[in-house]
């Protein structure tokens, strides 16, 4: 398994992106400890979420949620 940047991922075919999403979902189900969540923000608070994600020393993932 290897990482990929969002910029490169956007250039992949729809089938490749769908496969990547399926792989990520399977990995998340099998190994949720790999996806530590540090905070959740509603989409209406996206500026705060981005600021949190850019904090030095942050660990874990900052999630965006919606109703």
Write up this protein.
With 67 residues, the chain is α+β, with helices and mostly antiparallel strands. The chain has two domains: 1-32; 36-67, no CATH class. Helices cover 45% and strands 16% of the residues. It has three helices and two strands; from the N terminus they run ααβαβ. The protein has helices spanning 6-10, 14-30, 46-53; strands at 37-42, 61-65. The protein has a two-stranded parallel ribbon. Helix 3 (46-53) links the parallel strand 1 and strand 2 (61-65). The longest helix is centred in the first third of the chain and has 17 residues, at 14-30. The radius of gyration is 14 Å and the shape is globular.
Strand count, sense and barrel status of the largest sheet are:
2 strands, parallel
Give the helix tally: 3
The whole-number mean of residue pLDDT values reads: 85
Shape: globular
The counted number of beta strands is 2
Specify the structural class.
Answer: alpha+beta
Provide the β-strand percentage band: 15-25%
String of helices and strands: HHEHE
Measure the end-to-end span.
32 Å
- Supply Rg: 14 Å
The spatial strand order of the largest sheet comes to: 1-2
How many structural domains are formed by the residues? 2
pLDDT < 50 runs, ≥5 residues: none
User: What is the share of helical residues?
Assistant: 40-55%
SSE order and pairing:
Blueprint: H1 6-10, H2 14-30, E1 37-42, H3 46-53, E2 61-65
Parallel strand pairs: 1-2
Write a short abstract of this structure.
The chain is α+β, with helices and mostly antiparallel strands and 67 residues long. The protein contains 3 helices and 2 strands.
């Amino acid at each position: 398994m290897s990482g990929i940047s969002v910029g490169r991922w956007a250039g992949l075919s729809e089938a490749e992106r769908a496969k990547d999403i399926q792989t990520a979902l399977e990995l998340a189900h099998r190994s949720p400890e790999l996806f530590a969540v540090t905070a959740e923000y509603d989409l209406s608070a996206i500026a705060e979420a981005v600021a949190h994600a850019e904090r030095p020393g942050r660990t874990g993932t900052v999630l965006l949620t919606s109703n």
